[in-house]
Amino acid sequence: MKVLKRIAILGALSASLIVTGCNGFERTAFQTLSSSRDDINAAQDAYEAPATPTKPKKIPHNQCAFTLINAAKAAQVVAVNAMVAYEEQKATSKDLTAQTAVAATSITGLVATVVKVKTLYSNPAAACGGAN
Amino acid sequence: MNAADIAVYVKQVQVAGDTILNSVEAITPGEDVTAESAEALLNLVAEMAQIALAAWSAAAGVPITVESVMALMPNPTPLTPPDPE
User: Fold this and answer.
1) What is the distance in angstroms between the Cα of B22 and the nearest Cα belonging to chain A?
2) Interface predicted TM-score (ipTM) of this complex, two decimals
3) From A7's CA, which of A77, A84, B61, B66 has a CA 20 to 30 Å away?
4) What is the pLDDT of residues A78-125, one digit of tens each?
5) CA pair distance B4, A95, nearest whole angstrom
6) CA-CA-CA-CA torsion for B16, B17, B23, B25, nearest 10 degrees?
7) Under an 8 A CB cutoff, do B69 and A30 touch?
8) Which of residues 28-47 of A touch B (CB under 8 A)?
9) CA of B54, closest CA in chain A: separation in Å?
């Protein structure tokens, strides 16, 4: 009975230690990709939404916005594919160093692109380098 | 999270397990802990660490799998062409 109590204590403490102490690359990457996907989809919705007298367009329906949002969508696809490759490799290999670097690089590029897309809301001229 | 990360957490759990065992022994000095039983308990802790990792994923939101990552693809509908300038 005492052994069972020990096992219960160990289980509870080890679980709490892990639950509170774990914040690795994988989770951060997943949350970043989730956030960027929502940003990009919202930008697409804003780009496509028609202007009305009471609701002006949040993002202009012009070439600059079209190019930036498409670039962000492409970057998202590249980053997601890199993380899918990471997950697949995780099942077969213990050394994920190379794939971690690939995924991290693609996510860094994605984040920079999404920042530009966000600027379309507040300052389209700046996002388009003064072209719009 | 990769294998190295997991190993770090398992090590932390093992250290915590040693501490707990020592503490419990101090409270109940009449009971011996053999090397075999201690090792078995530490193995159990290592297994629990794996389970706790899965629990952590669930606690933080969506479990990270190939399928859940694939769901992070952007809206597949192409953008409509821009207005002529």
Assistant:
1) 11
2) 0.78
3) B61
4) 999 999 999 999 888 888 999 999 999 999 999 999 999 988 888 887
5) 9
6) -170
7) yes
8) 30-31, 33-34, 37, 40-41, 44, 47
9) 9
